[in-house]
Amino acid sequence: MAPTTVPPAEFERRIERVREKLATTDRDTLCLFSATAIEWVSGFHHLQTERPVCLAVTDETVAITVPRLERDRAESDDFPLIERVHGYYDYPGIGDADDAENATPHETYHEHRSRTPEATIRTMLDDLGAERIAADSDGAPGHWGYSGPSLGELAGVDVETVEWVTDWRKTKSAGEIGLLRRSAKWGNLAHRKLAEYAEPGKHELWVAKRASLDASMAMLDTLGERYDSRLRGGFPASCGFLSGPNTALPHGLTENRRLEEGDVLVTGATANVGGYVSELERTMFLGEPSPEDRERFEAMLAAQTTAIEESGPGVACAHVDGAVHDVLADRGFAEHAQHHTGHNIGLEGHERGFIDRGSDEVMQPGHVYTIEPGIYIPGEAGYRHSDTIVVTEEGTEQLTYFPRSLDENVIPVR
């Protein structure tokens, strides 16, 4: 059976990679505050809120500070690489650093209701003997209303901000690519359901939610207990779309609108598999497209085809985006492009590595990109396909596979 999560051995290799990197620097500890970075390194996944979570890795120990509501999960057998758990009750908490210094550190969680998250992080770092820290940010980010001191201020340590994990995440392992491939499979099913349910008179939201629910239940029934949910009530496989004039906005919001014959649809579908997401988007037509629709669609499709064909190992992302611009310019649509060609994707919908003329990035085997050039005619409609590709040693592999041609993206009106 194909795995649906990253195997434990991969997290062990990531921890070792951190330690090897630390050994090449004058830093003795890596601190991570980003939920995505913490998950990628240790496997511990959580909802990032105003309550700081801090993972610390030294050459000997992996420790974490969590709020009370994450205590049970952090201590569970699901995350065996985390050796020490420090905890506080909630943010902002009460107490001060002196209270934290007088607390006794434990190998497992010890709850101090009178302690602040910052004081608890300081206790953890003191316990580890941390003095020179590399961190993804100098203190917890201002998320959901959090406001606190820098890491250097709260712990009295030397801090250097680094982007090691962000850069490492650009290149996916074979296991990660496998999860993305399965995400594409279930996203494709959600998209097929969307095309099946879309018809004049149906509400956008009804079509999207019915398709997402049906695809998700098929996914859950097929995977059974092997499916490791990273969601809080959302759909494991999901899809949605914009319709009519709203498609002229690249990031338009779902409207209170019912479909009409002649509508242009710009769709999106994905599935969450082990925390990883792919991206599939299509321009579709509810009924026969107009001659203007056909011309615009074919220009967009030519630009996307060029981007896929130009991508590969050793290719500059700027070159790919430039080639797309040239195609659109030749067809008279350059002024209607509003964004770059694509971005890396994995644990997050957008990750570092952007297919942009201003980028210095060079595509390498293991990089995974969306290919999504679009054109947008104000007040009329937008046209965009997006496919997820992985760069290989020989070229590229397209992970998403819903048909791309115009005729295959016309939804018959029944």
From TrEMBL:
Superkingdom assignment: Archaea
Gene3D superfamilies (UniProt xref): Creatinase/methionine aminopeptidase superfamily (3.90.230.10), Creatinase/prolidase N-terminal domain (3.40.350.10)
UniProt signal peptide: none
Transmembrane regions listed in the UniProt entry: none
Segments forming domain Peptidase M24: 179-393
Pfam annotation, one family: Peptidase_M24
SUPFAM superfamilies tied to this protein: Creatinase/aminopeptidase, Creatinase/prolidase N-terminal domain
Creatinase N-terminal domain ranges (all copies): 14-95
InterPro entries reported in the protein's UniProt record: Creatin/AminoP/Spt16_N, Creatinase/aminopeptidase-like, Creatinase_N, Pept_M24, Peptidase_M24B
Name assigned to this protein: Peptidase M24
Organism name: Halococcus salifodinae DSM 8989
